């Protein structure tokens, strides 16, 4: 284990120059002298299937998800990557039924927060925008942490030098064309990632001992880690992630941005394709953690963020190590540029476009400048926070749970005409107030407080499963599924769930936001909302002809075709 394979400094510099230089070249090829504000945010809303599916897949096969899946495998054993990858894939699948409704009522929007402004007003908009700013900065930070760990492990360069180089590279190619650059480079990046995973995982597995490893390494695992149906893995990893995935599907701007960019008739096809691509890849890469567990490997420095690069440095040849290096750089870049474009669109559309200038007076050229400045500020913030070396898996679960407070109010706002701004805003604030003490154990979950927490968590189970059923099967089935889930879970969950604060916090957020939102909506005397108004209040900031938009999209398609042909 001490004889780790590393890459020489000049080799690392060459690989990064080739990768980021190629990405910059692709971005410059589609650069416009006068960048269009709507194109900079959503590429005109008419991206085709190939680029959209590749972009969605690449954005969620990110370095942090790879590292977190491997951490889950190392921590919880064979079932860890299954819980991480399967429920993460479910998150992508859940987008399309709700996404079709969102695009129907807001066909030309740029952010979910922008739609909430049209639906409710400023407070609900800023809640969604604020949560996404926090989520995207955390996501960007975790990707930089993953890249810094990679470079410090596999090269003579330090963690700090690594995150600075990666941050500069991603910022350089994304700054020019915004979202258009992000989706175009995603196509190339997903090809690199999928090809590398297919080769690298089997090589590491057989180099570590192959099938016999599960016999010789059994001494290193606990009964729970060896159990495919591990309750420890389910309650600490699987169940919190099931709750979190719905929140990611509804609340995350990087997803919403791709939802608003793809052609409306291709939403279902795009996200189903991305579901399978993500699930297979992330479960596969998570097996590196399982292999490390059975091989008795201890993460360097006790930091599980080092686990994946450590496995590569232990078992791969120099050539495959270069391939692995590019795979991780590609995976983190595909999501880091998505975070930058998500943050820029929030500031452009929600802060400047709606709240400072106003939609009718917003200057498109000023919007693009603001978007670019936002990217620079966001990257500086990500670099600053990356120095804290936070645990990536904890970051992801926390953000997903935090967004859980928004899920029911957001979904209800797209279907239920009577939901008011007061119901939306108060339900989210109260849910967050209930979530934080439970999640971080600020109060002792004992006695009556534990019972109340468990009752709310049980209701949260019904809310989560009911909302999932609602997306695919409608209200009647959702009510049946939610009610049955609560009744069936109650005898087992009450008196038990409070012992898992991560899971309880997330479920409490779902339950409280739902109860408060419904309680404030039912007695409302306000007239039913006309959803047609949303399409009128949202839309393009920059007037551009259809021919110009079609030319932009043709450029994107031709670039992706040329990349595919070159491979």
UniProtKB/TrEMBL annotation:
It is found in: Cell membrane. GO terms for molecular function: symporter activity. Keywords: Cell membrane, Ion transport, Membrane, Sodium, Sodium transport, Symport, Transmembrane, Transmembrane helix, Transport. GO terms for cellular component: plasma membrane. It is a multi-pass membrane protein. It catalyses: L-proline(in) + Na(+)(in) = L-proline(out) + Na(+)(out). One of its GO terms (biological process) is sodium ion transport. It holds the Pfam family SSF. The chain crosses the membrane at residues 6-28, 40-62, 82-99, 126-151, 157-175, 187-208, 228-250, 271-295, 315-336, 369-386, 392-412, 419-436, 442-470, 477-497, 503-522. It comes from the Bacteria. Belongs to the sodium:solute symporter (SSF) (TC 2.A.21) family. PANTHER family: SODIUM/PROLINE SYMPORTER-RELATED, SODIUM_PROLINE SYMPORTER. This is Sodium-solute symporter, putative. It comes from Microbacterium esteraromaticum.
